[in-house]
Amino acid sequence: MDEFVNLKETELRLGLPGTDNVCEGKESIISCCNNNNKRALSSDNEKEIESSSRKTETSPPRKAQIVGWPPVRSYRKNNIQTKKNESEHEGQGIYVKVSMDGAPYLRKIDLSCYKGYSELLKALELMFKFSVGEYFERDGYKGSEFVPTYEDKDGDWMLIGDVPWEMFICTCKRLRIMKGSEAKGLGCGV
Amino acid sequence: MTEEDSSAKMSEDVEQYLKLNPPCSSSSSSSAVAFANKSGTFKSSSPPCPEHVLENVLENVLQFLTSRCDRNAVSLVCKSWYRVEAQTRFEVFIGNCYSLSPARLTHRFKGLRSIVLKGKPRFADFNLMPPNWGAQFAPWVAATAKAYPWLEKVHLKRMFVTDDDLALLAESFPGFKELTLVCCEGFGTSGIAVIANKCRQLKVLDLVESEVTDDEVDWISCFPEGKSHLESLSFDCVESPINFNALEGLVVRSPFLKKLRTNRFVSLEELHRLMVRAPQLTSLGTGSFSPDNAPQGEQLPDYAAAFLACKSIVCLSGFREFRPEYLLAISPVCANLTSLNFSYANISPHMLMPIIRNCHNIRVFWALDSIRDEGLQAVAATCKELRELRIFPFDPREDSEGPVSGVGLQAISEGCRKLESILYFCQRMTNEAVTAMSENCPQLTVFRLCIMGRHRPDHVTGKPMDDGFGAIVKNCKKLTRLAVSGLLTDEAFSYIGEYGKLIRTLSVAFAGNSDKALRYVLEGCPKLQKLEIRDSPFGDAGLRSGMHRYCNMRFVWLSSCVLSLGGCRDVAQALPNVVVEVFGSDGDDDDDTVTGDYVETLYLYRSLDGPRKDAPKFVTIL
């Protein structure tokens, strides 16, 4: 699963040839996503996100955050001196809904918590208790009846992993884990 | 008013007025009736009819009535009084822009000079409402542009205002004087530029905690040349650089400028230059309060001298990127300060002490919890005139360190006996400290305590915070606004219902056990106007218990509770004058959330003109 993440040379990128966008990280994510408003969490009764799959070297693991709590306006949160640098790195969160065929509930996740596809897929597997099979660039996911897909800004349903991670973050509107025959149709090719 | 009109009204109201006018004898009443039967042919040499006299008297008297409650009462006396009141009302306050249509406003009031309009409910500030929900200024500016060409003042809070709206405003009101935008969004520096340029009589331009997009327009340069009428200019929330030379030039030609709040792009050196040009300032927003990193070729400016020269400063704010070594420069004005806002500055107790010990006259103090309990103790020791205290969290998370606690709260209560309003964020609290405040500060009208950990009990006894809040409602007899937090059972709400007879605004989050709590409040608090509740176990039965109240309230907000669509629909059907909106937490159209019946957010409000026509797709009006 980690293989395709490491194939830098064959990656389609948005930068100019010769530039290395790797360092830009969150800033580029934020600049290409117009909607910086944190969208609310919903779906579960608990309304908490498990961000256990997110790893950060420098800060302690972030405890699950509730939207709008404590009740401090974002203007104030973002403007307290010396907090500004920190909040720039934290970002505003990119929340998308995730549904799985057959499951009675939806979940919401923050895409900015994950560094790449492997982390994201592991988190999804944990969340919905399924396994996703192996990804092949040509043939999509094999070895499981579940196929992870997403809807992009143009309304097209795509296979998760088809585009570079940075591009995915910007264009993904929501995720859907398809099951069964519908999955196979999408899973084959591009 | 023509004489034909007046005689028609005369026949309507003559009896009432004659009763009201003691000097009128029966002979004059018969001549009055005789007059009413004619069709307006009387000569001006005859004495004026009682109708005219009364309305003239009323007009003159009503000019002194400014309180909107009094004016509302006057307008209910009779039709004639309603009319005169409508003619003499110059300021109108609309607490919920959807409670009536702009057309209704312009139809009733013909002579407005000032409008205050509020839009979104407060919980929208905390991302609990999807964007594009509404509260657009556009229909209001369009209607008032036609109806009130002499409009002078517009004050908006939580409204969506576009640059086009601002342009229309600037063009339509030649005498426009005051624009205040609080917590608004939707516009940018280009809109501000039009206001600056076209409103030649502008006295006040206050942008407060609003989101202003950077259109890269040099709006400060758009103020016209020549002497300006500016008295107040606040742009501390504008997150874009400004042309400092233009600002300095503007300040120089604004002899009436009293209030100036600069943004963080104004350095300490620049602030110094402004202060030297405007020693008459009474209210100063200090911008970054940090020097430019430019090399110091010449002598350092004497900041303390600048503050010394500004003898009139009573209100200080800003300090957006302050450097501690310069903080003492404000010392010369400390003794005169009535208001000090350090809430964007990470000030430690050690930095605070030398400043606060001179601030004997402070009435309003805002700070971060970085000042710690120690800092609060220092405030309590000196600031005997304190009326309003706000302590915000430096690190607004549930599990962050808690530098302030019941210790600080109790100290404040013991030192600042005149306290009227408090907003206090903390990690942990005790019933004892809250009770102490209720006993020491009987003048409290606003008590907002935010224990950031959800469901957190008294950290010493482990008990719920019921007793503390109970003591507040019981002892603070003037309390009109209350925000509760921490672990609270239904009992806390029974206290609120029993004692909170003057409460107008109540905020609840993660509290209560059952619908009983909601019932206690809705049945017990007769003055309740604004109720905002989130994440509490209140359902349809609780909602139903307030049916008799909703027509008399400004709004009710219930999010992430346990309401069903059916329950909300019942309310909507029973109360035709109340608009019931339900929506989810994000702006997606589709409704494939947990169950079709679950209501994530309910927002209801009374309205004279029925459901709004501009509701976005994600809002369902029942």
Automatic annotation (TrEMBL), chain A:
Which GO biological process entries does UniProt record here?
A: auxin-activated signaling pathway; regulation of DNA-templated transcription
Q: Which UniProt keywords apply?
A: Auxin signaling pathway, Nucleus, Repressor, Transcription, Transcription regulation
| Stretches assigned to the PB1 domain | 93-180
Query: Could you tell me the superkingdom of the organism this chain comes from?
Result: Eukaryota
Q: Where is the composition biased (Basic and acidic residues)?
A: 44-57
Q: Which InterPro entries match?
A: AUX/IAA_dom (IPR033389), AUX_IAA (IPR003311), PB1-like (IPR053793)
Q: Where is this region: Disordered?
A: 40-66
Compartment(s) where it occurs, according to its Swiss-Prot or TrEMBL record: Nucleus
Query: Cellular component per GO?
Result: nucleus
What does it do? Aux/IAA proteins are short-lived transcriptional factors that function as repressors of early auxin response genes at low auxin concentrations.
**Binding partners and assembly:** Homodimers and heterodimers.
Family membership, please give it.
Answer: Belongs to the Aux/IAA family.
- Protein name per the record: Auxin-responsive protein
From TrEMBL, chain B:
One GO cellular component term, please give it: nucleus
Question: Keyword Nucleus, does the record have it?
Answer: yes
Tell me the leader sequence span: none
Q: Which GO terms describe its biological process?
A: auxin-activated signaling pathway; SCF-dependent proteasomal ubiquitin-dependent protein catabolic process
Query: Its domain of life?
Result: Eukaryota
Q: Does the keyword Cell cycle apply?
A: no
| Keywords assigned | Auxin signaling pathway, Nucleus, Ubl conjugation pathway
* Pathway(s) of this molecule: Protein modification; protein ubiquitination
Domain COI1 F-box: residue ranges: 51-89
- In this chain the Transport inhibitor response domain maps to 111-156
Report quaternary structure and partners: Part of a SCF (SKP1-cullin-F-box) protein ligase complex. May interact with auxin and auxin-responsive proteins.
Q: Which residues cross the membrane?
A: none
Q: Which organism encodes this protein? A: Arabidopsis suecica
Protein name stated in the entry: Leucine-rich repeat cysteine-containing subtype
